[in-house]
Design brief:
By secondary structure, this protein is an alpha/beta fold. The chain has 28 helices and 24 strands.
Length: 734
Amino acid sequence: MSTAPVHGPDASLPTGHWIVVADSPFLPARGGGEREHLGFVRAASRAGLLSALVIPTDSDAAAVGRQDDLAAIRSLVAPAPVIEIPRTRALFRALQLRTPYVVASRPVPDDLLSRISEVAPDADAVVIFSYKSHRIGRALADGLELPVVLRQHNLEGPYHRSLAAAAPFPRSVAVRVEAERINADERRLEQSGWLSGIADISAADAALRSQRAGVPVRYVPPFALDSLPIDRPWKRPTSDVPTVVFLGALDVGTNHDAVTWFADAVWPKVRSRLPTARWSVVGRRPTDAVRKLITTTPGADLHADVADPAVYLHAAGAAINPAVSGSGVNIKLVEYLATGVPVVSTSRGTDGLLLEPGRDLMVSDDPADFAASVVSLLTDPDTAETTGGNGRRTALSLMDTRAGLTTIAGLLAGPPNTTAAVDEPGLDDCEVVLVSYRSRQHVQTLLDGWPDDLAVAVVDNSANADGIADLTGRYRRLRYVSGGGQGFARAANLGATSSIKPYVIFVNPDSRPTAADLLALVRGLAADPRAVSHAATVTGADGRVEIGVGGWEPSVGRLAVHAVGLHKLLPRAGLFAEPQLGEPLTPGWTTGACMAVRADLFAELGGFDETFFVYAEDMAFGRRARAAGWQCRLREDVVVAHGAGSSGAPSAEMLRLRGASFAGYLRRYHPGPRGVLMRGFFAAGTAGRMVAQRATGRSDAAALSRALLTGTLTGRAFVDGVEVARSRYDEVAH
């Protein structure tokens, strides 16, 4: 096992004296959660951050079916002290109404504060690892008046629901009841005033939690890499027997679901093309059901409770992560990627990590496609080695333990203590970016209404067809940039990344924000430590808030609500936001029609996704921001009139572009059957509206709906006769 640090070249270590509260002993580290515990404690100890380690332990090892190596833990963290506190597994702990058993069975000893004060008098922060020990962490926070960060492994409520679904009756009923208590307790915890922040192991969990939590949430990738054998990278085996491997704890319901799906739906298709292929299932404590499944599956071999699972990983031509249930990050996937073995996974299995399907690993939810990917990796050496190498490099880059410790330290420090009189930005700290497509008249109207000292960058996407470059001689602070006709996302990024101002404000040429509006957005953003952007509420020609000023991440449920028109009755259950004037709303993303961003953070997040020529780039930016723990704010107090698209190409073209971009978004971020179903709902809803519009004589509206439907179904759209949607997707996404 490697003990080498996983450090990024430019990261610097934070300083501090942290009390780390584990949820249980983690050596020997057999499972994913234990390896994650080990990686974090090792990284914190090596960085000199560990002041004390608190561990709930069982006095009777036989009662929990494992023998913990506390001596090894003490040696690992020395000279920091280890404080053991007893777990209480009594039945009455499960009968408390508000406190779930997993929390109640870890009570706070009366002498905990005095023991900590004696052995770690210099402690200045607490990190709780994980949810199960949050009562212990709160006791330390309140008693010692220290900042606290909670390291979350999962969205605990949904995770325990998945365990309930996999459990046999009647145990499933008891687990489901516990899951609901955990979910309620977790939601209360997310609003706790004593927490400084939450560090989620999963990007998807961080994005969801950041929308509902009352404390800052950041995505901090797994530390498990620091406990895995990364020094010996995978090399394609020389054996003539094509072998695929699955690693995992075989007494966990989610892993049972995974191997069952693969055995029933995928493996027969692999064997039909590769009759000599073998499947190695490697893990601890296999249940009778798992043993029976593997015994009755042709070509499958069970390797239970082995000393070194890495032996089987290095002997395989590919690894599989066929997750069909559960939440959070599959640590097995981290291990696969770190080793460099090429991987095929379901989309659920990759939800928590910022990986690129088709490059870092193969991703499919369709059994036939999953099987084809396995066969490809087993039979094509170049594809296997390229995929495995890309995955390893991405894993080592993403899961930089030093960067993770720095993010947690930032949460512990809290937002900067700024003083408005000193740090409040003015117009001189901003630059407006106007992406223009034959919009000279609109741009000139805006410039005439703004003060001369406001910096403005015009990114021209029409090759100066309207003579807009001539305006640079008339306006002192105007900067002309050629956008090359490459669409809004690419042009906006060009304008933002070439700016030297700390704040950039994207403004559609046909919107009408005043200088006061722009300043309100920037000053609100500067005072909001959790936000990456503040966007104005834009209104149409009728004075009503435009639908699409923001919205939420697409899901099957939201698309179904949108398709049948229920969003009119349930406005927060659909896809696009349409709040009333002055109505507070926290969407997952906001429109870029009038939006201020922190320039450095915008660049750090990769800007707008250039996969999209126009449209969906704001939705994708919101997704990136949420994954990194940031929020996109919609300002109900800043209302800006908008010209409803009069600054772009003809509206039918733009509607077709909107449909094609949304179809591309689903392909990129929701691959597989779920994405296809969502696209079908969107198309069906658009088709229904088109029929209704025709029936009521609204032929112009029906034509626009037809253009939207065509773009959605084909994924193709044109500007001036040139296809721009599918070609851009193929250029960037692939």
